[in-house]
Amino acid sequence: MLKGKDILNTAQFSAEELSLIMDTAADYEQKVKNHEVIRDMEGRVVACLFFEPSTRTRLSFETAANRVGARAISVSSAGSSSAAKGETLVDTIRTIDGYIDVIVMRHPEIGSAKIAADNALHPVINAGDGSGQHPTQALLDIYTIRKEKGSLEGHTVTFLGDLKYGRTVHSLGYFMTLYKNKMFFVSPESLRMPEELTADFRNRGAEIVETEDINEALSKSDIVYVTRVQRERFADPAEYERLKGSYIIDQKVISKAKKGMTILHPLPRVDEISTDVDDYEGAAYFRQAHNGMYVRMALLALVSGAR
Ligand code: NCD
After folding, report:
1. How far is the CA of 175 from the centre of ligand 1 (A)?
2. How far, in Å, is the centroid of ligand 1 from the Cα of 43?
3. Using one digit for the tens of pLDDT, what is the confidence trace for 195-245?
4. pTM for the whole thing?
5. What DSSP line would sit under 50-108, residue for residue?
6. SS3 state of residue 217
7. 238-247 per-position pLDDT tens digit
8. How far apart are CA 80 and CA 74, in angstroms?
9. Which of 165, 168, 240, 265, when mutated, tests ligand 1's pocket best, judged by the most ligand atoms within 8 Å of its CB?
10. Mutation test of ligand 1: which of 107, 137, 171, 290 has the most ligand atoms closer than 8 Å to its C-beta?
11. 135-149 and 167-178 are packed helices; what angle lies between their axes, rounded to 10 degrees?
C-alpha cells in the first residue's frame, strides 16, 4: 500500500494506510522488546539528510534503520555538506539518490521535501520542512495517543503554544480531523494557527474552538499537545522574547485541568512544561519520543517495500 510512496504531508494519508503503519509499528515494538533480530531491510541503505538541528528525529531514524536491518548514512548539518559550497538542493538530492534506497530529509524551507521527492527516484520522507509539515512526528503522535488512550477517536485535544510556526501541529491537525476529535487551539493572537489550515480542517469536518484561555480549554481536554515557541522562525528577536513564556504547564495548571489529561510534546521543551510535571502520570512526552523509533521502523520498511 505504501511501497515507493513519498511521505510529504499528513493530508495524503487514508485511514487504512494509517492503520497499516500503526500495526506494523506495534509489531516491531514487540519484536524489539523480545530482542529479536530483524532483517527486513537487510542490504539497503537509508540516507538521513538533516539541514536543520535535530536530536530525536535524526537519531530515531538512524536507530530505526539499524534495527530494521538497513544501514544509515547521515548529513547532520547544512555546514557539513556541499550545501555550504552553494550546491542546490536538487543537485544534492540527484546525487544521493544514486547511492541509497530511501531518503529522509529535514530542511529549513517550506516545500523542500516536495522538491526533493520530485527529483528522486527513491522514496523521500519529510522529516520537517521549515514551518510547513512534520508528518512522521504526527504519525508517532497518533501511535502514542492510541497507546495512552486506547483509541484514536472521540477525544478533545488542545493544541497549545506556537501554532503559527509549529509544523508538528500543522501535521497532527489533519489526523485529528480524520478521527473526529474536537480541537481547541490556544495561542497568543500573533501565533494563531494559519487561517488556511484552520479552514482546511473545518472543511474536513473538524470542530475547532480558538481561544487564548488555557484553563477553559484544559478543563475540557483529554489531551494537551504543547509546542515550543519556534525561536528560529522569528524575524524579530524582541518578538520572540515577548511571546516565549506565554503559556506554561505547571502543577497549578494541571490541578485545574480535566482529570486524567494526557500531556504530549514533540520536544525539545524550553520552559513551556515545568519539569515538576514530569512525574505526573499523564506526562507522556518521553514515552512519545520513544515510540518514534517503532513508527519510523515501520515507515522505512513499508515505503521501501521490505514489508
Ligand atoms: C519538533 C520539530 O523539529 O519540529 N521537534 C521534533 O522533531 N521532535 C518540534 C520543535 O522543534 O519544537
Report:
1. 17
2. 30
3. 999 999 999 999 999 999 999 999 999 999 999 999 999 999 999 999 999
4. 0.97
5. ESS--SHHHHHHHHHHHHTT-EEEEE--GGGSGGGGT--HHHHHHHHTTT-SEEEEEES
6. helix
7. 999 999 999 9
8. 10
9. 168
10. 137
11. 50
Give 106's strand partners: 50
Q: What is the pLDDT of residue 81?
A: 84
CB 200 within 8 A of CB 10: no
Catalytic residues: 56-57, 85, 106, 134
Pocket lining: 126 vs ligand 1, CB cutoff 6 Å: no
Report the pLDDT value the prediction gives residue 85, as an integer from 0 to 100: 87
**Cβ 167 under 6 angstroms from ligand 1:** yes
Q: Is the CB of 231 under 6 A from ligand 1?
A: no
Instruction: With residue 49 as reference, give the H or E element that holds it.
Output: strand 45-50
**pLDDT tens, 64-116?**
999 999 999 999 888 888 888 889 999 999 999 999 999 999 999 999 999 99
- Expressed in angstroms and rounded, the spacing between residue 78 Cα and the centre of ligand 1 is 17
Grid coordinates of 66 = 539499524
Q: Which residue has the higher pLDDT, 86 or 138?
A: 138
CB 130 less than 6 A from any atom of ligand 1: no
Other C-beta atoms closer than 10 Å to the C-beta of 101 total 21
**How far is Cα 231 from Cα 241, in angstroms, rounded to an integer?**
9
